[in-house]
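hi! just following up on the protien thing from before. the input was this:
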Amino acid sequence: MATMTRLTTNEQLQSALETSGDKPLLVFKHSTRCPISSRAYEEVMTYLQDKPNESVEYAIIYVVEDRTVSNEAASLIGIRHESPQLILVNVGKPTWHTSHSHITSDALKEQLH
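and the predicted 3d structure came back as:
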């Protein structure tokens, strides 16, 4: 099972984006106060527990608790903030993103395998 690294500082975010040149980075922006985001979280966890692509790094940003990191991610990646949201970053650039009810384990399998 792959795990998600929680990004709590802008420095961690910057470092994760820099290393996306070596290994793609999937960023999950999650709101702990939103039932739609809770469902999306369950979908992401289902994917991570069922043969995830091990050549991808997985990160999570809690958009309420770590708002400055969430805002910085939108700025650096160039994708308008939504929550819940998945953004795949390769060499510092977004290559795929989706949000809300489109976040499913099947969508992740399709994009990451």
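The two ends are 15 Å apart (CA to CA).
The longest helix spans residues 35-49.
cheers
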